[in-house]
Amino acid sequence: MTERIAAIDCGTNSIRLLIADVARENADAAPHLTDVHREMRIVRLGQGVDATGALNPEAVERTRVALHDYVSLMEQHGVTKVRMVATSATRDASNRDDFFTMTAAELGRVVPGAVAEVITGDEEARLSFAGAVGELAADAGPFVVVDLGGGSTEVVLGDSSGVASAYSADIGCVRITERCLHGNPPTREEVAAARFFASERLAQAFGVVPVERAHTWVGVAGTMTTLAAVALDLPEYDSDKVHLTRLPLSEVRQVCDRLIGMDHDQRAALGPMHPGRVDVIGGGAVITEVLADELARRAGITELIVSEHDILDGIALSIA
Question: Taking the CB of residue 45, how many other CB atoms lie within 10 A of it?
């Protein structure tokens, strides 16, 4: 039996859609996803949330326009179930009820009664893990999956049997950029402050998640996939080439240092760079460098595997 479903991940920086067919061989078999359509738009919903505690009305309107188009695609493709989750930006916002009134009106066009939901950092971590490790050999575990988003970073440890430990750190590429990285390019002092901030927030995650047990590091979400595309020197972004790329940590650090040291125009000129990531990729690179150093020291990790499959796939599987 096959059912067509849709998953929407609304984060601090982007809103993403997956329309997929879900099939099972029998009632006891694990569900299998076949992509019908994937799309990502940068809407920067979390613009200013770290400073003001509220969602910017212009950011909510950008998100509404993208969601309206997504719902139209769902109608065209005959979607019968949808799950939309909202993560760090809406967890932190004082006016989030206005946002959810808007999303309910849009989602109700395709599935009556459908609503968006705020998920906890723990649930976000578990969904990311489910999506990230599905194609990796079980004997490569235990895995530490890192979902580096705009407002938060999830660190998850687990293996083929599931998640053992998870923590959502209150740091992401948008949050660290708005707080620390104001120069073009950022000054040495700004970069040092950003590294200190990242180290402080990630230390909280490493205090909870025993990453020293991990054998394999898997990175997901836009910062990680963009770093991989730049490392591969792609003329334009190609998700098929990025998916399951393996980067030695020495190469990860080189790419991160390069991006941190660039100004806005230099980053924008890179072929695979999405325009909406130009101003925050340096912040994501700082966080990635700190992760690489800590995982090498704590777990002896020597490479990063970058996966295109992440929380979006986990959301779709949760519907099934």
Answer: 29
pLDDT lower than 50: segments of the chain:
none
Question: Structure tokens of 280?
Answer: 């925050």
Distance CA 79, CA 82 (A): 7
Question: What Cα–Cα distance (Å) separates residue 305 from each residue in 116, 230, 238, 242, 276?
Answer: 31, 14, 16, 10, 23
Residues whose CB is less than 8 angstroms from the CB of residue 52 and which lie 6 or more positions away in sequence, other chains included:
none
What is the spatial distance between Cα 119 and Cα 85, in angstroms, rounded to a whole number? 6
What is the model's pLDDT at position 189? 96
Identify which of 276, 278, 231 has the alpha carbon closest to the alpha carbon of residue 250: 231
Nearest to 177 by CA among 69, 277, 103, 98: 277
Rg (CA), the chain: 19
Distance in angstroms (rounded) separating the CA atoms of residues 66 and 89: 17
Residues present in the chain in total: 320
Q: Copy the structure tokens of residue 29.
A: 């078999």
Is 303:217 a contact under the CB 8 Å cutoff? yes
CA 66-269-10 angle, to 5 degrees, is 25
**Residue 94's pLDDT is what?**
87
Q: Give helix 281-299 / helix 222-231 axis angle, nearest 10°.
A: 90
Contacts of 170 (CB under 8 A, 6+ apart): 88, 151, 152, 201
CA distance 106 to 145: 32
User: How would you classify the pairing of strands 116-118 and 81-86?
Assistant: parallel
Tell me the whole-structure pTM to 2 decimals: 0.81
* CA within 13 Å, CB half, 158: 24
Q: How many whole angstroms separate alpha carbon 201 and alpha carbon 204?
A: 6
Kindly give the residue spans of alpha helices, DSSP state H, lying in 46-143.
Answer: 49-52, 57-77, 88-92, 96-107, 121-132
